[in-house]
Amino acid sequence: MTNPDFWSDADHARRQGQQLARDKETIELWDRLKSDADTLAEMASTYGADASEQISQSFEALKTEFERYEFQALFSEPYSTNNAMMAIHAGTGGVDAMDWAEMLLRMYLRFCEQQGWTVRILDQQQGGEAGIKSVTFEVQGPYAYGYLHTEAGVHRLVRISPFDGEKLRQTSFALVEVIPDLGETQEVVVSPDDIRIDVYRASGKGGQGVNTTDSAVRITHIPSGIVVTCQNERSQLQNKETAMRYLKAKLHQLSLAQREEERQELRGEYHEAAWGNQIRSYVLNPYKMVKDHRTNYETDQIQDVLDGQLLPFIEEYIKWRKKLPQAISE
After folding, report:
1. How far, in Å, are 1, 115, 150, 311 from residue 142 at the CA level?
2. Distance between CA 270 and CA 112 in Å, rounded?
């Protein structure tokens, strides 16, 4: 930040300033926890049994806070501290699947709200009868990607369909994508010759002026076939910048995925990420249960989960990942 040219790029300077603030906050947090622990140890040594109840209460409070932040220290995946970009796509199941996609969106919005994170919808395609076909949104907050990358995969819902007159049990699927927001990274270079940019009129809710100009932007990366859209901003330029950032993040993730597939194929471990390979099932009928098929963690408090209480599943997944041989070697 002492570089004379640092403030010449305001956006770069802002992001670096935010990163510095986060790093300072982290260091100050652990310094404070250590100081509190030293103070408590000194109190126990000085007063002993005379203050046992107060010491015990203070210890439990400090232990709870420590365990919360100790869990964050487990985030060793690349870009764990970054913001995240998420997308939810309705899969097999017709109207029920689109309704399920909207239920998942509500669940993640609730979870982000509980974490104090900011969410910004970038693009949303409504379903014809109910629900959503797809939605893309950005999550800004400390360790957003570290927490949310655990949710990437196929989510399966089993329930009595509210859209079926015969009240038959229906199985629906939705795909959740989570990629890190790379910000200003220069790791991904996109040639202008490799993309096609289309502009069109934004649809849905957006406020005065949004639906009357060609402000929405669609970018197609021709070599990979990846398509990204953004219609959240009023300005076409802002939508283009956000869509390009999203495209670069997806291309970076694609590159990482391809390298991982190559490594798994060499080890004989590769499995296609098909619809049948769901990571989690949510069963509302004939019984109530949410089960993560990777960790086998489950709960019958399904309404709490749908209301955004995802931390137990996330914590179990992070701990499970730490036990995998490839995670240890990495």
Report:
1. 21, 9, 15, 15
2. 32
| SS3 state at 207 | coil
Name the fold adopted by 192-267. Answer: Double Stranded RNA Binding Domain (3.30.160)
Domains 84-185+272-329 and 192-267 belong to one CATH topology = no
pLDDT score recorded for residue 108? 98
Per residue in 78-94, pLDDT (tens digit) is 788 889 999 999 988 88
Q: Are 150 and 277 in contact (CB under 8 A)?
A: no
209 CB neighbour count, 10 Å cutoff = 10
Burial, 157: exposed, middle or buried (Cβ in 10 Å; 0-12, 13-18, 19+)? buried
Burial of 203 (0-12, 13-18, 19+ CB in 10 A): middle
Q: Of 76, 62, 71, 132, which is closest to residue 100 (Cα–Cα)? A: 132
Contacts of 198 (CB under 8 A, 6+ apart): 217, 218, 219, 220
Rounded-to-integer distance, Cα 271 and Cα 261, Å:
9
User: How do the domains of the chain map onto residue ranges?
Assistant: 6-72, 84-185+272-329, 192-267
Neighbours of 328 (CB within 10 A): 9
232 compared with 269, residue with greater pLDDT: 232
84-185+272-329 is classed CATH 2.30.30.90: no
Average pLDDT estimate for 298-308: 96
For residue range 227-247, list pLDDT tens digits in order.
Answer: 998 887 768 888 888 888 888
The per-residue pLDDT for 212 is: 52
Mention every residue, 6+ apart, whose C-beta is less than 8 A from residue 30. 69
- Asked if residue 266 has pLDDT above 70, the reply is no
Return the structure tokens found at 213: 């100009």
pLDDT for position 307: 97
Tokens of 248: 């670069």
Q: What is the mean pLDDT of residues 3-13?
A: 83
* Residue predicted with more confidence, 164 or 228: 228
